[in-house]
């Protein structure tokens, strides 16, 4: 029997103040797909994403990527595992004073020596791959621009290219559209969807916009008070289900028109 690509079992996070951010969350991703995680602020969405790659240390439970349990890994083991996990942040997490190309190449930091990374002396194959990724995300010709000269949507495209530079087995996206206008948000979701389809990898996206999640995700996970309360097809996300997730839901949940992958 084939192991799930990502398997989470009993994942719990306590902050020691009586607050349980995650309460025994369990699910598996068995095929390459884009899984949207929705819920109110404080539902545990970001904590879930960050516990998977141990940016936040879980209190208990297991997170298995390709059969390897991540929480027990040593520092060296975690560094090797993080090569397999691309992370895209809401705040972009770019080095503002560096160029677009330099930021993309930092996606290889887990594979090169300290001195190579410090001097940005990457191999020809890596540089060719970085150029190809910039073309893929629509930033061909931007390689020498400084990150602080880019728009929000352009910065997020750099973040996607940087994550793909790792050649990951799993992609994590933590509210990548939260700081973007609606049109740019759709473009970024379209790009992410296209990349995931082409690379045939699983991806988990924490997203606050229900319509975007319904339009672009293959599957929706709904969280409330740290618990998983919905896991299913976007078409099954009825108003009653949304009320269960959000504790009442007044906005129009109708999805925007589906766009073709970039």
TrEMBL record:
It comes from the Bacteria. The keyword Translocase applies. Pfam families: ABC_tran. InterPro entries: AAA+_ATPase, ABC_transporter-like_ATP-bd, ABC_transporter-like_CS, ABC_transpr_PhnC, MetN_ABC_transporter-like, P-loop_NTPase. SUPFAM superfamilies: P-loop containing nucleoside triphosphate hydrolases. Gene3D superfamilies: P-loop containing nucleotide triphosphate hydrolases. Keywords: ATP-binding, Cell membrane, Membrane, Nucleotide-binding, Translocase, Transport. SMART domains: AAA. Transmembrane segments: none annotated. GO terms for molecular function: ATP binding. Residues 6-250 form the ABC transporter domain. Belongs to the ABC transporter superfamily. This is Phosphonate transport system ATP-binding protein. It comes from Aquamicrobium ahrensii.
